[in-house]
Amino acid sequence: MKSVISKINELSEKYRDYTAENLSKLIKIKSLSKDEKLVQMELKQQMEDAGFDEVKIDGLGNVIGRIGNGKKNLAIDGHMDTVDIGNIKNWDFNPLGGEIKNGFVHGRGSVDQKGGPASFVTSGKILKELGFDKDMTIYFVGSVMEEDCDGLCWKYIIEEDGIKPDFVISTEPTNLNIYRGHRGRMEMQVSFYGVSSHGSAPERGENAIYMASRVALEIEKLNEHLQYNEFLGKGSITISEIISGSPSLCAVSDFARIHLDRRLTWGETKESAVKEIEELIKDIKAEVKVLNYSEKAYTGLEYGMEKYYPTWKIPEDHKIVQTGVKAYQNLYQRNAKIDKWTFSTNGVTINGIYGIPTIGFGPGNEVLAHAPNEKVLIDDLVVASAFYAAFAYEMDEF
């Protein structure tokens, strides 16, 4: 095993420029959610060039590469869609330039999260070069639509493609730490129904905006009293949008709606979160509902799910966490930090819904996700490409 680990280290360094250049190519292709076709074709080509046993694109547009054909199934996931660029004036370089300079690859998606897939392409190349022949099937997944609806891609992979791995590594950015969970989230709308009257006599009506405003202040208070978990932290809630309607701008508003972003810590559920809001609106004409997502992928397929993304965490002593710990120790003779994400990932579906043991290990610092001047250390890409290959060998020990 020592000789294999040594060879993995050697090859990950050998392919340093290869990994950086592959990532640069991916960054140069703008790939917002539902518009990932061109970047998926590039990723597919990179997998094929690396010598993967099989590469295909499924009905939703996920690229799925395979190495091996054994009984034990490991999947390594990274989403290929990104958020938009935002205000270009906040960038010091071309966000779609993919510039390789001063030890970094620069651009939108370098951290969140094309750096992970670029690294696992190199991992696949390393495994093929080493003649990986364990009783294992490894799926390398470049997934779609995560920024729009995290986990939707894996709902499709599990329910429609019929691929349900035994273990999953998410390559979302972890700053090269091993992550074992994060808070869940959900999206709710609360609609308020008032009665319009002429604006000259507001006392004759019931103003839905006032109704919504009073509840909004109660939601602000609610945020301070949500549950806390020692590992995942505190639940939270915020209003991210408010809209209203009335017969005219000279009339009392008869409708208002607020959009809620609810982050769920351990022990909080969809049902408990809805009940909290129902308590706040029980004496007024209002209703709360959990939203649904249904959109067309770039393939033309319409697919969706409820916008409830469960909280998840893996025990620190679970074998998938400890396999990651061992792989990292063997590669670098030091301990990896075990932690959690602040944001949400495809893990909400992979583990939160389907219960598949999942960890995170990815290049880049999550503070740069969705931020201007996004860039990733090439050193991080090298470590990640070594880690995924080493993990596959270590996993065979279980």
Describe this structure in words.
With 398 residues, this protein is α+β, with helices and mostly antiparallel strands. It folds into two domains: 2-182 and 311-395, Zn peptidases (Aminopeptidase, 3-Layer(aba) Sandwich); 184-296, 2-Layer Sandwich (Alpha-Beta Plaits). 31% of the residues lie in helices and 25% in strands. It has a six-stranded mixed beta sheet, with helices on one face. Strands 10, 13, 14, 15 and 18 form a five-stranded antiparallel beta sheet that branches. The protein has a three-stranded antiparallel beta sheet with strand order 4-5-22. Strand 4 and strand 5 (104-106) form a beta hairpin. The longest helix is centred in the last third of the chain and has 18 residues, at 378-395. The relative contact order is 0.20. The model has no long low-confidence stretch (mean pLDDT 97).
Total domain count: 2
Question: How many angstroms does the end-to-end distance come to?
Answer: 14 Å
Radius of gyration: 23 Å
- DSSP strand (E) fraction? 15-25%
Instruction: Label the CATH architecture of the largest domain.
Output: 3-Layer(aba) Sandwich
As a percent range, the share of helical residues equals 25-40%
Q: What count of helical segments does DSSP give?
A: 10
CATH fold topology of the largest domain: Aminopeptidase
